[in-house]
Write a structure and sequence with these properties.
28 strands; 19 helices; globular; nine-stranded antiparallel beta sheet
Length: about 750
Amino acid sequence: MTSENWWLDQPEPSDVAALKGWEGLFTQGSGYLHVRGSLEEHLSDAPQDQSYMRRPANVTAEQFPDMRSKWGTFVPGIYGNHPLMGKEMANLPCFLQIALSVDDERLDIRQSALLHHQRALNLKTAVLTRSLTWRAQSGAQIDVTFERFASAAQPHLFAQRLTLTSDRDARLMLETGIDAGVRTSGYDHFAHVRFERVGAARLRCAVVLDTGDEVNEISQARLQDAAWDYVAGERAAHLCVEIPLSAGQSITFEKVTLVTTNMDEGELILSDFDALDTPFDVLQAEHEAIWQRRWEHADVRISGDDRSQIALRAALYHLLRAHPGHERVAIDPKAYAGDAYRGLYFWDTEMYLLPFFLYTDPERARMLTDFRIRTLSGARRNAAEFGYAGARYPWEGDADGIEQCPNWQYRDHEVHVTADVVYGLAHTAQATAQPGYLTRAGHAVLRETAAYWLERIDWRPGDDYPSLLGVMGPDEYAPITNNNAYTNRMVAFALSLAATAEEDDGLRERCQLIARKLPLPRRADGLLLQCEEFEQFAEIDFTALWRDRTKPFAAQVSQERLYRSRCLKQADVLLLMMLFPDEFSDAEVRQAWAYYLPYTTHDSSLSPGVHALIALRLGFADQAWDFWERSLHLDFDGGAEEGIHIAAQGMNWQIAVFGFGGLRTAMQADVLTLNPHLPHQWTQLAFPVVWKGQEVYVEITPDGVSIENRSERDLTAVIHGTSVVVAPGNRSIWPEQAHT
């Protein structure tokens, strides 16, 4: 495998035990529509209609039902109402089915004699290909190839193609359909399901959910001279045909599925559904052209480490396909590859996902922050329900910004998300060199979140400073604490920013006062404390309690113990130091690292990436590499069973570009600044970046740094402390500083 390798290969495609994880990894999406990578013929003993009652819990330790396969068809923003969990993105009817029988023997990966079986996702083209050679019991040997993609050019379309060739005459039975026998988190959200045959080879499924959302799926089957039979039941419908296979003759079957919902808001989707009749090759060509352009602006090339290269490209693939392409929704924590996080929106957007888009595709980045502006009315409603003025962004928000978190600990106390939103707006303004974004589009968010904070702070008797009491910081194992350092600093940032845009003198002065006086608690020796009470928590014996390190710590101890002990789910103080690096000396960061790392369980997928970046700052190359590998491979070896850890994938880009590449963010530097830390395992790191509207290409080797200015004006850059000016179309090389 080289840096040119784009194939994500499933090692043992017939290994049923690994199927669910690869269904997550092989998820395909157009932004509008996302489909898990389940097998075309489905598993015969893996029912998808298992009903159970999911209950509010610590999702880190939550045990999901043991299912060999988990179908998933998702349209972001289409929700059902769960009786205990609130709104959740609905798992829609599955339209992938293409089942084969040859001479009355059905293809089954566990029982059929497969001489060859390969399954791989081409990350460059976003096309999933599966090929197998099947020795039927009748003696016929059939070569089978499946191909499929979610169209980037026509986001409502999903295209599939089957090609097969037999070495002797045989009979083929082909069955294709739509199956609504699915559940979401064990719950049935379908209030109404209706099937109909639309013409000779079209099948339509219409669904109305318990929220009133409406979904239509129309599949067009294309096979020459096929006389289809129609078979329909209460929750599934199929088109079936039997045709002869002639020795040596290839047969091609194409299936295109169109999905529409009430999310479409009256937009013109397709003219008379013409695309349903468009050949697979034509749809594929227009689809791949878009993916080629995406990769030109996003690909990170690593030389000398093929394992990291393919895993990082998998991360970037999921970031690219998960973006909705508009501001009506954002990206959920499972990247629409599963329903574990219910298709809702967290602080992941601003802290972990936004930077990738800001420095590769600013237009799409702004859609993510515009989503927050669009949902300000929902944030107002949230604040009012808690009895506050202004706007309070949800910990788990739906497409309208309404709080859906069923767990009181997070819903009530993890308030830092409201300041994180403002940080995201500021980052967007800085990275795009558009300060007016804050004073115009984002001004209402600054003002109304400030109004919330001014009521949320308390003045305790005897204190001459304000406090934020009863909060949960990023570390979710410390539930109700006072003056969490991360939260206080983010709130101070948000209030200071609001003050700069505020015209009311009194309100501006109040914002400035609170921002200036909110404390960052410290120990006598200068250690930045996570919260005032941290050292009053009980010590914990990890060796005795955490016996199986392959499972989260929270899965092996009670939540009650977590909440009274000195243990962290993820980076908290270190995250603060990552976001505001110039406010803390290396000695302070090293002190915090030494103190908090032994207490940190990394139960959250968000934790390894932050630790990798801090380790690189401190020069801990080996530890940085260990955390990089841990974060990079989270979704392999079964990690993607319930979906993609998309925030971690966003962090993987940050480790590569901000960490190993040494790029300082626009929140930390006014000009493009690079201080690379190339690992000894790599011979080259190269990546495109958009810096305040200028397109740049960076190449880093052990010998130096090259910066190519692909914009139309001069670029000022600082490389290892040396300032250079690169003319349009030119390249600067450090340390020689030669220009070509």
